[in-house]
Design a protein that fits this description.
26% strand, 195 residues, 8 strands, homodimer, two-stranded antiparallel sheet
């Protein structure tokens, strides 16, 4: 057997099994988002605080005087921080629209107080709630109660970032976000990163 | 001339001028930070909102009752957002110390109010002040009034990100940051990204 024939044989012996392995592991198709399952289930990105950009902060200090049914403590009371990926923010600033697959993560943290030389201070305690919105321009999950109006919507306890507590986005999410419909349900007027 | 000799000659003809060009353009030495001049002058990074991570938010709603000289409105009143580069945050979380060259940017924005279905809301208006801290483990600018205690300190109006308004960090910066000396002058207890 010549030297070249021996090299070819060696190549075939290694390459063919490697190719079979690779094909067996290849996904059937490219998924829409790493945070959306084939059934439309949404999960919380794990690394948003450490690597995403911050759109802005909202502080909800009291219940709105919107009628007697609004009395009591809102689950939204606290300091809200909103995060997204840098490339989504860049695209929004360039085009005025959130690109398909944009992920917005909103954390709610209770207000902590302190008196420092700077003044009477509010800062954020441990997160109590995380909301996720995922931009869906293709209306991918038509009969899913967590998807509609151009977004996927989900609500989590930080301790369980895969268990969406929302059963109906129209009830659980639009109750607050409806008033921001003209800006695609996002409160951009309060986001320094967008201005 | 053999084929190999011709290849060597070609390589030399291209490589030698390229090397000369590269050496001619090389900087005399690597600068400490892109935001610090040779004289210790600090400037505001231009891209922190669009590409850096956000450490956390502090809200200063009133003056501390620290004595009669503290009455009146503090220039620090407002919503404070603090940003750094992702790699600096990663290093801090791994080691418990800010690496040399770490840049912290703090924006102060006045509180805006709104009444929304979510509740009575505070959000951030246009920035009125930007502070910059740059970690300096080598005590590089010994007699500079903006450098000391392991940091470079500077204070800007957003309209002029190169004109440091602080003339003495001990007076202009430590008046608030002294109480955080045990955590290297950084109020890490309020930073969700650090927790």
């Amino acid at each position: 057997m010549s030297k070249i024939s021996r090299m070819s044989l060696t190549l075939i012996l290694f390459a063919v099994p490697a190719l079979i392995l690779a094909l067996g592991q290849a996904p059937a198709k490219v998924p829409f988002s790493p945070y959306v399952g084939a059934d439309g289930a949404v999960s919380v990105p794990s690394d948003f605080r450490a690597s995403w950009v911050h759109l802005g902060t909202w502080i909800v200090t009291s219940q709105a005087a919107a009628g007697p049914e609004k009395s009591g403590t809102s689950h939204a009371n606290g300091i809200h921080g909103v995060y997204t990926r840098a490339e989504s923010l860049k695209a929004y600033k360039e085009t005025g629209a959130w690109p398909d697959g944009t992920v917005l993560v909103l954390e709610v943290r209770p207000v902590q107080w302190d008196d420092l030389p700077t003044g009477h201070i509010m800062y954020a305690g441990d997160a109590t709630e995380i909301s996720v919105m995922i931009k869906d321009r293709a209306n991918r999950f038509k009969n899913h109660p967590g998807w509609g109006d151009g977004w996927g919507w989900a609500l989590f306890k930080p301790s369980n970032p895969r268990a969406n507590m929302s059963t109906d986005y129209k009830k659980d999410c639009l109750s607050c976000h409806e008033v921001a419909r003209d800006s695609d349900f996002v409160f951009v007027q309060g986001y320094p990163a967008v201005k």
